[in-house]
Design goal:
The chain is α/β, with parallel strands linked by helices. It has two domains: about 10-150, Leucine Aminopeptidase, subunit E, domain 1 (3-Layer(aba) Sandwich); about 175-485, Zn peptidases (Aminopeptidase, 3-Layer(aba) Sandwich), CATH 3.40.630. The chain contains 14 helices and 19 strands. An eight-stranded mixed beta sheet has the order 7-8-10-9-13-17-14-15, with helices on both faces. The chain has a six-stranded mixed beta sheet with strand order 1-6-5-2-4-3, covered by helices on one side. It is elongated and about 75 Å long.
Length: about 500
């Protein structure tokens, strides 16, 4: 894998003209129509007798004297998309998880461009193989080698696709590893140290700001959230600056390494145990940026990771306190569990000072967004429709579901405070919108989009290319956004 990967073992992926003799599993993509691959050794009638129709994601495993052969459903091969190939490869990974070396024939089975097909197959297989095992006493074994069997005519394009897929899937592995790591094993300082290591391996410039520097800079939001913790905060600034950049994009990630709710203590339920994942936004920013050089991105990208935990103690931020942010605005605290917007406010203020072409922030921000859209879909809100459209397009390409919510400006009065510029919450309804309106106070006139990923940050079980636990949602979305970024033209949001 590429240098951006974390500590888990992931399959190595390469292309080959025929199945290697060392392969103990040979998998073949089979459509609902068309010829059956000869190497499968089964007729369509025999497949149907065993309940296999060739539908997308179906698998049928047949033992042989040398291992297994596997039929992998691809649906209609004439219409198969990158998402179909990604999910088929993911299904193959799970069906062959006990095998060391898998040979998969799928690139030539679809009409999709060979580079796109090979990239999607690589992504699907690697991401579905993922397991967080760093703290296991007896780690499970996973497939160590994937050979994508392609024709000579498509070999060059397939090789390029595999290289891209290794970079993008490796970034997701990194984001998942970070988000799955328990809070005692990933404090703000540890996350900053990890960011430095990743940056050096990925060709990024990196700066780390400690508590003393943050105080001088006036980052009252980040410092306020950190007040209850024995662990000091960190802010990390990452920079990717190619020659002759065609635009400048800033990404801001929420990096709450553990969120107890502070004085507004969360209930002791399963969701509380997942609050180690409240830094998923920062993980996605770091991970996506780690892949930019390898992918030849032509956009300048600056990333801000706003890192601290949120704990209750005698020194913790209290309801009624007022915080002053980097841009001079103030907020009265009415709920210490609405802390993500407080650290993002400082990050967005710094982003505006860069005078970029656009800003995107990403955060596990509100339960309200999950209530509105469920656990699979992220919300996007923002100030500029053209830029939001770019975000939605990047999400669609990544097969990361997203839905635009309205930035209803009449709701801004719900944030009014008697003693400060605003409160940090806006009442019991429309919480995803009022949270975005709070953030909008720190984005100036720069085109801005906000990603609320509270729902899809985590899955309870394997599904498609998702593996149980942290999903790494937003990593490939942000990568796609940077790769295809264009300067937004004047166009307010809907």
């Amino acid at each position: 894998m590429t240098p951006n990967t974390a500590s888990i073992t992931a399959p190595n992926v390469s292309t080959t003209r025929s199945a290697p003799r060392s392969a103990d599993a040979q998998a073949f993509a089979v459509g609902t129509t068309g010829a059956i691959p000869r190497g499968l050794g089964l007729s369509r009638a025999a497949l149907k007798e065993n309940g296999f129709e060739g539908n997308a994601g179906q698998t049928l495993v047949v033992p042989t004297t040398r291992g297994v052969v596997v039929a992998v459903g691809i649906g209609d091969p004439r219409k198969a998309t990158a998402a179909d190939v990604r999910n088929a490869a993911a299904a193959c990974a799970r069906a062959t998880s006990k095998r060391k070396h898998v040979a998969l024939s799928i690139v030539d089975a679809v009409r999709l461009d060979a580079r796109a097909a090979a990239q999607a197959a690589t992504e699907g297989f690697v991401m579905a193989s993922y397991r967080f095992q760093e703290l296991k006493s007896s780690p499970i074994s996973i497939t160590s080698e994937l050979s994508l069997v392609t024709s000579a005519a498509k070999a060059r394009a397939a090789d390029a696709g595999v290289a891209r897929g290794r970079s993008t899937a490796g970034a997701v592995v990194l984001a998942r590893d970070l988000a799955n790591t328990p809070p005692a094993h990933l404090t703000a300082r540890m996350l900053a140290d990890r960011a430095v290591a990743v940056a050096k391996a990925s060709g990024l410039d990196v700066e780390v700001f400690d508590k003393d520097k943050l105080e001088v800079m006036g980052l009252g939001g980040l410092l306020g959230v950190n007040r209850g913790s024995t662990e000091p905060p960190r802010m990390v600034r990452l920079t990717y600056a190619p020659r002759n950049a065609r635009g400048h994009l800033v990404m801001v990630g929420k990096g709450i390494t553990y969120d107890s709710g502070g004085i507004s203590l969360k209930p002791s339920d399963p969701m509380h145990a997942n609050m180690k994942m409240d830094m998923s936004g920062a993980a996605a920013v770091l991970a996506s940026m780690s892949a930019l050089k390898a992918l030849g991105c032509r956009t300048k990208v600056t990333g801000y990771l706003m890192c601290t935990d949120n704990r209750p103690s005698g020194s913790a931020m209290a309801m009624g306190d007022v915080l002053k942010f980097r841009n001079g605005k103030t907020s009265e605290i009415h709920n210490t569990d609405a802390e993500g917007r407080l650290v993002l406010a400082d990050g967005l203020s710094l982003a505006v000072e860069q005078k970029p072409d656009a800003i995107v922030d990403i955060a596990t921000l509100t339960g309200a967004c999950m209530a509105a859209l469920g656990p699979k879909i992220a919300g996007v809100l923002g100030s500029h429709q053209g830029f939001i459209d770019q975000v939605v397009s990047a999400a669609k390409e990544a097969d990361e579901p997203i839905w635009q919510l309205p930035l209803e400006r009449s709701y801004r009065r719900l944030l009014d405070s008697n003693v400060a510029d605003m409160k940090n919450i806006g009442g019991p309804y429309g919480g995803a919108i009022t949270a975005a309106l709070f953030l909008n106070e720190f984005t100036g006139d720069v085109p801005w989009a906000h990603l609320d990923i509270a729902g899809p940050m985590n899955v309870d079980g394997d599904e498609g290319w998702l593996s149980r636990g942290a999903t790494g949602y937003g990593t490939r979305l942000l990568t796609n956004l940077a790769l295809d970024f264009s300067r937004p033209t004047a166009r307010p949001a809907k």
